[in-house]
TrEMBL record, chains A, B:
NCBIfam families the record matches: HAD-SF-IIA
EC number: 3.1.3.-
Keyword Hydrolase recorded: yes
Record's protein name: Acid sugar phosphatase
Amino acid sequence: MIKDIEGFLIDIDGTIFRGDELIPGAVESINFLKALNKRVTYVSNRGNITRRTCYDRLKAVGVDVLEEEILLSSTVMAYFLKEHYPLSYVWTLGDSGLKEELVYHGVKISETPEKADFLIITLCETLTYHDLNQAFQAVQHGARILATNADKTFPNGKEKAIDVAGMIGAIEAASGRKTEVVIGKPSWFMVNKALAQLDVPAEKCMVIGDSLESDILMGNMHSMKTMLVLTGNTQRKHLESIPKRLEPDYIVDSIYSIVKVTL
Amino acid sequence: MIKDIEGFLIDIDGTIFRGDELIPGAVESINFLKALNKRVTYVSNRGNITRRTCYDRLKAVGVDVLEEEILLSSTVMAYFLKEHYPLSYVWTLGDSGLKEELVYHGVKISETPEKADFLIITLCETLTYHDLNQAFQAVQHGARILATNADKTFPNGKEKAIDVAGMIGAIEAASGRKTEVVIGKPSWFMVNKALAQLDVPAEKCMVIGDSLESDILMGNMHSMKTMLVLTGNTQRKHLESIPKRLEPDYIVDSIYSIVKVTL
């Protein structure tokens, strides 16, 4: 029963927004949860923007949000590096939001690709051959590969555009090296940070999101309740004969159903 | 004995040129072979330039060359498409030389990525995210993947820059689809076209090149004599414990040795 849930991990793209459009009822749903004193954190695999950018975007549409409630894969990558590799210097392959987020959290950026300890890969919609080759130089000179996420596509208007998997694939194929850690959902690191932020045990949490492979899998692997929304990547036809670990506890048309379910 | 060789398949980058620099003695060596009435063809995995561009480059340094003696992987890709898929429309991911070469040989370019039957991949030093995504859209809409070559790096000044393998890796990783044919050396298709051009049986041919995996392998797989030059990708240290199929018949400091060996 949802009334027993104390903490919510809410996905953003495909759950609150579809492309640039706000999904009807999303803001009301979140503010409804807040009014019930539920704890909320926003957990997104977007790694090419800063938390501040995301905060502004949510605030602009009327979500009652605090900046520290937002966990992007760029933010969590910064936490990961600060926690496990505080001495390291990194190079980035991705849009400028990644680098800004890392710098904001005190991660050190290498002066040159050749000196970097890690190459951090995220989506790069501003990619050029020069960017790709600089990242490649980092890896050729020994930088280890980390990625904010490994999504293959993201919805961009009517098309599914090439996502981080493309950038990772380019570097891995040419270097023969592999990505060591993918930080985003469904990784444990994202979950740990979300639970720490919520301050609620996993058993009393629910994940709400549109992706079976990132949102639902993450929740199921960590004893959380899971709610799949059909406003994003997943449609009903995708739900036939899926493995047990991807099965959501609830399947709803949109996040707005939460208002009805809780009544 | 080299005096028994009637046809020569000569690699260009790493054998005649190193980056933009002409390798000392290269022009003299080729003109020496021509003076002995040997048949010569230039066989290069470069797919991002036209044959005309390559011809101009060789002519400019004094090589006695005919345009039809040059077989780039872009040229041979055009032959392949005309021979096996004459009805097809293609989309390209690569520098403009590829498209120009295909058009020159009568290959039809698709109006949009979505309508393409094939995506042809080569090195794209002018790559942008938009190019990559358009190529990805072609594959998402059913285009089959072909590549001019699959080299991982090419020498660019002091660094080894990311090559076609990076472009292929991006598309394959994000689409989950694989490249069906790689046209360049050491493929049979390149060999067939070279032998047809030379009009000499394989047993009376010699491959001269700097790459074990493309030049030497190609020659060994087709009963040709093979000569490895150490002016490009391969150094003596790379020759320890190599498999039999990569072992060259001759290992020389540069192509200029051919003048001495034939005497």
